[in-house]
Amino acid sequence: MRKYVPLVVFAWLILAFISPVSGQEAIRISELLKDDGDISIQDISRIDETVIVADTLDGWQASWIGGVNGAQAAYNNWSQGGTNTISVTGSTVFNLKFRKERFAYALDTNLRYGKARIEDEGTRKTDDRVAINNKFSYLFNNDKWSAFANINFSTQFDKGFDYNVPDTVQPRLISKIFSPAYFTQIAGIAFTPADYFSLQAGMAMKETIIADTSLSERYGLGPGEQFRFEPGYSTAMFFERELFSNVRLISSVETFTNLQRNISSTDVHFSNELVGKINNFMNMSFQYVTIYDDDYSKKVQVKQVLSAGISVTIL
């Protein structure tokens, strides 16, 4: 997958500059969030760093959305476990934002859990996510540039299994709560030539926690090890724009390179989501995510989800 990243970057650069540059800085909220009801569609997106602060905000702002979606999902070599199925997923997204002059802060808490009952095969997990992301930003005099610092955490709620085994063999456990869990800290510079496109780069630290030592080697740790620290650097590109009326594309490429390993072991996360807003309570989305992380597998992980559902604004 990594050999296609330059093509993706080139295509994004074309998209970024074919329209007039707006001169907005890196912490401008998406035009999609025209009212509180619209934010519900973001609970599917992996693009944590884009849940940010409007440049008109002065002080604190909070929002909380809960939703239930039905989905058709397909998985291939996906580390959290799952199977092709029709499923039901519950989600909740809590956002807290603050802005004062040139400083801004955003907290994004994204929780998802889904299960499906498959004929003759019982109940299986189809989606599982715990993500807490913090972003601090400071706008420079040239408001296309800003300094940022991210502190992020992610894991899952429940056990995940690999069901791609012979019928006579029990499914293999491949994940559970805090196995793995990831902490990442990134500090760097962001460049936003347009309000729908941004580039980020910075130094990073990544900590991997494996509470269940039977899974340590599966995630690149030594036998019995529960913790790994990795210094490195991170790059990211984000694109979010309305393609048609009420149809929006949210896309990102994020990388992490460990300074102590060969660059060929760079982690790459490529996420795309096409979102269609039906009304204030209903939405549809198509999500396609690929991950390369050779600590888990030499193969590319693939996740595809087509879903429709309802959402309710709690706060």
UniProtKB/TrEMBL annotation:
**Pfam families, per the entry:** DUF3078
Q: Which domain of life is it from?
A: Bacteria
Q: What is this protein called?
A: DUF3078 domain-containing protein
Please tell me the species this chain comes from.
Answer: Fodinibius roseus
